[in-house]
Amino acid sequence: MDIAALSSSHPDHWMRATAIRALALDAVAAANSGHSGMPIGMADVATVLYSRHLKFDAARPDWPDRDRFILSAGHGSMLLYALLYLTGDAEITLDEVKNFRQLGARTAGHPENFLATAIETTTGPLGQGIAMSVGFAIAEEALRARFTSKIIDHHTYVIAGDGCLMEGVSQEAIALAGRQELGHLVVFWDNNNITIDGKVSLSDRTNQPQRFAASGWHVQEIDGHDPEAIDAAIAAAKADPRPSMIACKTHIALGHAAQDSSKGHGALTDGDQNAAAKAAWGWSAAPFEIPADIKSWWEEVGARGAAASAEWDARLAKLSGNKQAEFARTMAGEAPKKLSATIKALKKQLAETQPKVATRKSSEMVLEVINPIMPETIGGSADLTGSNNTKTADLGVFDAETRDGRYIYYGIREHGMAAAMNGMALHGGVRPYGGTFFCFTDYARPAMRLAALQKIPTVFVMTHDSIGLGEDGPTHQPIEHLAICRATPNTLVFRPADTTETAEAWEIALTQDATPSVLALSRQNLPTLRTEMKTKNLVAQGGYVLADAEGKRQAILMATGSEVAIAMEARDLLQAEGIGTRVVSMPCWELFEDQDEAYRKRVLPGGPVRVAVEAGIRFGWDRWLYGERGKREKGGFVGMHGFGASAPSDALYDHFGITPAAVAEKVKSML
Amino acid sequence: MDIAALSSSHPDHWMRATAIRALALDAVAAANSGHSGMPIGMADVATVLYSRHLKFDAARPDWPDRDRFILSAGHGSMLLYALLYLTGDAEITLDEVKNFRQLGARTAGHPENFLATAIETTTGPLGQGIAMSVGFAIAEEALRARFTSKIIDHHTYVIAGDGCLMEGVSQEAIALAGRQELGHLVVFWDNNNITIDGKVSLSDRTNQPQRFAASGWHVQEIDGHDPEAIDAAIAAAKADPRPSMIACKTHIALGHAAQDSSKGHGALTDGDQNAAAKAAWGWSAAPFEIPADIKSWWEEVGARGAAASAEWDARLAKLSGNKQAEFARTMAGEAPKKLSATIKALKKQLAETQPKVATRKSSEMVLEVINPIMPETIGGSADLTGSNNTKTADLGVFDAETRDGRYIYYGIREHGMAAAMNGMALHGGVRPYGGTFFCFTDYARPAMRLAALQKIPTVFVMTHDSIGLGEDGPTHQPIEHLAICRATPNTLVFRPADTTETAEAWEIALTQDATPSVLALSRQNLPTLRTEMKTKNLVAQGGYVLADAEGKRQAILMATGSEVAIAMEARDLLQAEGIGTRVVSMPCWELFEDQDEAYRKRVLPGGPVRVAVEAGIRFGWDRWLYGERGKREKGGFVGMHGFGASAPSDALYDHFGITPAAVAEKVKSML
């Protein structure tokens, strides 16, 4: 690459972009770890984007109508940190840049959204950024439909690398964005031909522009080092009604000895080579030092949006007071005040009608009363709408012509759906929930983990949550999935036993601000067990005494979801034999763990035999059986010990011995 | 659709294909559950494929050189069962068809490979079939290179639906197959425009032929009900050197009232409608009855390959005795006899040299001695070759021109890699292993579960297995992933502590025939802890006493992987204070569980304080702390309690308190 030609043809641009390059090179070298080549290669694109197109106000990183910038190729984090430092972000200071990848720094190895306001997303697991960006763009369209383009009218820009595009989730994202005609979404592909193992051609020869075009994208191919070409391409992308992909031909580690090699992907730490690169770039400042003229130019870029931001405030102020309050409420992620009363009213009605329905149907009943009072919800399903019961009558369908619709047909794309929901939650102003079969949490897993890590309240509606699914068989029967979800930090896993518990679980899920929720719901009908109206949200305690022992308490049965009814029947059998038996419903372990010791002790006192009943594996239950005042000799489990089978649900419960009689026998064997 | 025109233009074909339709309709109606429409829609394609192209011998479903047929759209399982019954498969009898989806039947809701020899794969989770098919095709190429086309020369045929193509993993599969120019792979796309939620256009408008073409596939578009067009397309697909996709325009539930509707996707159980459909088809036989002429035609189809199969035997018999034995050994999945001696020799050398290396490097050292004696291994990595240490000097690279190469650059496609490896393992004759970062088991998870469910010995080499990964931060640091893998039935999860344990783990993994293995390996260097040569494979016991207490045994430390060294240092601290401390290395919980009670009791006697040390979450450890003669008051854990952070590895171990001093303190707090 002819660096001299590049720098001489656009000398000002060159030095401004090279400020990014120098910071990336210095920070990675100081940390002796990281990824130098990508920020160096994409510095030109980033400079043009930030200085000529990106709508942002560095002094106000939480401006709701800012453009969103998502670094899907998260390993190039120094690109983002350099941009934030250069433009004057208050949190990403020079000290932070110098502390790149050190304990406690905001400048983590990969961008983490909770470490600085201006970091929109946590990226690094490849493909997640581009998949989340679809959710950002959906949220923008939905909010624009709701609050008009005077209040919401911005773009979502993404930098994606070859890795992002090789990950399967990118296809789900591309197809969904194309189908939804998300015209405010612009993806830059860092087309540098290099992956960690070597040239891209080692593992891929996909014609990416053709692939994007096949899903209805506007596609351009440019020299990613030519500022005028970059500028023109962004302008064209914004003008086109389709989502846009700009293939930017770049040189990884441009101007460095490692240019155009897989070595250039990683940490460039050779002092001599780095010095030579800086010399080639025409960069003579000391490490971490930015010449004043360049820094002040960048700070002007950071301040460029201040006027637009103020004008936006003025436009917002012209809305009615109610509309302003509603905008503030939804952007803050606050549930409406009447949510609590609405849930209580539903619970009262349930105590009267005592429906016998599947909890997936219970969930629909709850959504039927919630969705009308929470216009921020956006529902959807990965092609199982009628099975997940996620669509309520009032929602309408979100589509190109109906952006006020609130239901999304995600297609058979569990992973893309989960990631898109994360993007919506991160964008703010909407509250996404989406459904699939619980077993297919497997597909959504990388995004579900990222919801937890990013501290966002995405709601995963996972139906058909056990062998109760029946004939579809072991490929569709979750066995280990409760354990998987419970093992994930910062995740509330609800498995409600009836409609009342389902309502309470939804209330909790919809009032979270930093924790995702998983609702594991049954396919099969379940009786109402909470037959008395209680104002208090009992699920909020995680576990509670559903039915106490009559006479001397000899046994405690712990169960969740569809097995609570089995535990209740087992209790009848045991009580008939004079064995005092308590049933504890444990719809949410995480919330039960959060209760104080005194409460947990009241629910799970030492002494009685304990049997847990759950149509999943035992993994994790020992904490409640043996721990918490329990005793090894007095703890037993009735549930699954391996994969399920294909047969009608009742036959499976019998076959695998998850029955009231088996529970009663287990208790008696330990008395 | 003009059924009369279809039936009159190819009357014989029509009735033969309709035999499939009738069986599917009858079986689903009898089960009152299942998917009628897909078998009805794809019956013409299947009939032409089986009768004119598929190389198979119904009497010999395990003929190694048979063509493979993979029903990626696994919900259409009755298509497969009908074909097997009609062609005379010994296991899928008429009784089995009548017992569709009932407990104990071979005719499960979705095809399960272990229920009948002729069922090649377990499918149902969408996209898995097409992704596994890439592995089948790779295995075929590799074996052809090794044993010549006289012995191995067959095709892999796949039926995929819209769901398969919407799943992201399909993109990974398509791109990998295109890159590898897998010309013996032919995918039929059941292009029926219908998904569960409605028309495909609700959620997708992707031009699928264009998308396949973008990755180098040969693409054709045909009327999927025209037998001559189907025949010609298959012939053209076989003639083309590229992988082929045949877009078959079909009508789901052809001729039924539910034709071309999402209702047609599911179970068609309305008696009148079903009778009307049969009338429209011109089918007058009783339920489950196949007219003799049609059945005998299909049985001739099933017998057509008998001659070819016998000729193949003759060709095999002409190979040298050694070659025949080697072919038999690898197809049977048997490890070579010298594996055991090779591992022992390595262990002897390790006891002498006591290397201090990361276990990912240990793994490479083991592979360096294994790969030369196991020509059936096929290694690879999802673009982390240098980090996963999966490539040894002798392997060569598998590519279009070098099919004898045994290393695959999978690209950034963890899911596609895992599924392809499953396909290879199912094909037989090769033994796949592949690597990525342990955290990205998340991406591979649906395929890892399917390895366990399918009872195949895929080996997942998962490096960078804890916060020891360091600066890349929490997105890349597995915390809950040991729990996730351990929670999965039929999976051996190894976390070796040093090179010797790594060697023993590999020996076990490579001698499995029905269980996948996960090797969780460290990024950071670890000391040799097994300093004495022991002939016995201690890892095979799952857990064992690495260092016993000196003096009175007051504490037992249990640890895995990189934390065993920390436990050993903690033991030194405790012993120095006179606290007799045993260290138990537990590299494989599942194998330890399999030991008899007496052995487990010797390793974990009741009495002493127990502390588990693992740089993951506690989830699951209570079994060993409180269970197995343990006591709640005397069990403690040192490990992670949430997500990690971005910092150098040592700083993280200190920050999260996973240190010898912390372990010693934990012990003393409970004495």
TrEMBL record, chains A, B:
GO terms for biological process: pentose-phosphate shunt, non-oxidative branch. It is an enzyme of class 2 (transferase). SMART domains: Transket_pyr. Mg(2+) binds at D162, N192, I194. Binds 1 thiamine pyrophosphate per subunit. During the reaction, the substrate forms a covalent intermediate with the cofactor. Pathway: Carbohydrate degradation; pentose phosphate pathway; Carbohydrate biosynthesis; Calvin cycle. Its EC number is 2.2.1.1. It comes from the Bacteria. InterPro entries: THDP-binding (IPR029061), Transketo_C/PFOR_II (IPR009014), Transketolase-like_C_2 (IPR055152), Transketolase-like_Pyr-bd (IPR005475), Transketolase_bac-like (IPR005478), Transketolase_BS (IPR020826), Transketolase_fam (IPR033247), Transketolase_N (IPR005474). One of its GO terms (molecular function) is metal ion binding. PANTHER family: TRANSKETOLASE (PTHR43522), TRANSKETOLASE 1-RELATED (PTHR43522:SF2). This is Transketolase.
